[in-house]
């Protein structure tokens, strides 16, 4: 979770979705500041030169305009709306951060489970399937097993090998999902 003191500035290694949410907070902060400046009077300065006048005293003109904000309720409503939008953006950042943490935890657990499954296939089921094939071949050679026993043992070995390859592919998918949850390009760098 991001530090509550600075929700608009996630760490540089933050997920791109967190960086986008923080940018929205900064934009809403600018809106709040702009709405606050609407309560101050606006000044306008002008100067002109008009050569159509005969006397030089009338050719030059200087003016000052002042706009005084009298409709304060409208400005107050705009400021309240800007603060509400900023609070919404802050809540969105917290939500995105929590969702990303949950995704990272879930994908990490799924990846670890797939690694354990792959280890089970490679360390236990594959050696057992190889031993069954060797036993079936020895039994067929000795004339104690029919040919179908040897074929079924080979078929079971191929099924285990297929499951190993499917589990490796699943591990690659889970690793890519974990990389995405971390904010990295799958198979690449941040």
Structure, described:
By secondary structure, the protein is mainly α. Helix content is 69%, strand content 8%. The chain contains four helices and two strands; from the N terminus they run H-E-H-E-H-H. The chain has helices at 16-37, 56-59, 72-141, 147-182; strands spanning 42-49, 60-67. A two-stranded antiparallel sheet has the order 1-2. The two termini are 20 Å apart. Mean pLDDT is 86; it is low at 1-5.
Helix content: 55-70%
Global morphology: rod-shaped
Mean pLDDT: 86
Main sheet: which strands, in order across?
1-2
Instruction: Calculate Rg over CA atoms.
Output: 36 Å
Number of strands: 2
Distance between the termini: 20 Å
Uncertain stretches = 1-5
Number of helices: 4
Largest sheet: 2 strands, antiparallel
Order of helices and strands: HEHEHH
Structural class: mainly alpha
Strand percentage, roughly? 5-15%
């Amino acid at each position: 979770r991001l530090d509550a003191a600075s929700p608009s500035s996630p760490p540089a290694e933050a997920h791109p979705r967190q960086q986008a949410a923080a940018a929205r907070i900064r934009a809403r902060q600018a809106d709040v500041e702009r709405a606050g400046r609407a309560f101050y009077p606006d000044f306008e300065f002008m100067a002109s030169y008009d050569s159509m006048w005969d006397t030089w005293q009338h050719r030059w003109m200087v003016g000052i305009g002042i706009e005084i904000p009298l409709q304060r309720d409208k400005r107050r409503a705009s400021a309240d709306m800007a603060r509400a939008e900023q609070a919404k953006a802050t809540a969105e950042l917290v939500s995105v951060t929590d969702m990303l943490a949950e995704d990272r935890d879930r994908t990490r657990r799924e990846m670890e489970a797939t690694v354990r499954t792959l280890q089970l296939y490679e360390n236990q089921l594959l050696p057992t399937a190889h031993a069954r094939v060797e036993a079936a071949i020895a039994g067929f050679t000795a004339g104690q097993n029919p040919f179908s026993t040897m074929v079924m043992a080979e078929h079971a070995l191929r099924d285990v090998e297929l499951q190993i390859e499917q589990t490796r592919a699943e591990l690659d998918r889970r690793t890519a999902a974990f990389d995405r949850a971390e904010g990295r390009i799958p198979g690449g760098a941040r």
